[in-house]
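Case study 2.
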Amino acid sequence: MKIIDAHMHYFNISHFKTIARKAGHTNSVKGWQKICDENNIVYAIAMGNSYDAPSRFGGVPPRLIDLGGDVSEEFDKIPDNIGYCLGVSSEDITSKNAEKTALEFEYYLKNDKKHCLGLKFYMGYNSVYLNDKRHQPLFEIAKEYKVPVAMHSGETASNRGQLKYAHPLTVDEAALEHPDVKFVICHIGNPWVQDAITVAGKNENVYIDLSGLMEGIPSKEYLAYHKDYFAHMNMWLKYANVYGKIMYGSDWPLINIPTYVDVMKKLIPVKHHEEFFYKNALKVYSRIKIPK
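Prediction:
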């Protein structure tokens, strides 16, 4: 079965390297390609990637925002089997620079059609709601170029985050006001799983990725201990019947891919595996071009 990883990270950060070792691999270009080869991952979407270019239009340019990430020489080229979503630093955007900021993002969407797949907003890490007026020009750019808007939702890796901004219910308002833009609730809103599923079930233009629900290599004891959590998620997925709107994502390098794929295979009914692991990502991230 072919797999598209709809949520991973492709840059250098010491924190990632430490967790990667605990997850049984290395946070490296070779390490990722080896995982792809061994698990039939034909494409992946890196969240928050850009190359820290200077401002071209006087706005806030897209940049690596994930936990202070930095592109090193090792990660300075994006291979054919990886696309990226541009990271939005919401707190730096103002009413005065919002339109110019949209031009900064449009530059990549226009000039890197091969790899630039969408926009990534960091609600919770940024103390700004998704539907804040400062984001409206970016939503218009997403509409024009037919790319999705992905939003961090749920708990944050840092205790400095403010969770009210990362609640999946905040996507509902944005989705209603921008029906021609696809929105992705990342991490299934964890721990607000039922809220994320309800928002996706209600809004035709809202999707979900199931990335980052475990870290490292969870033991059998860990999975057994948390069986009620996965049963709760399974119940809501079945109740809402949103299998056409959910995507596999890993949050690599933070997790062990074979283990995570195995857990997701058990969570998602077999008849929906092709949708979940492959087809739904093509539907949402329509710029994806699978290398031959």
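The beta strands are 3-8, 41-47, 82-88, 116-121, 149-151, 183-185, 206-209, 246-247.
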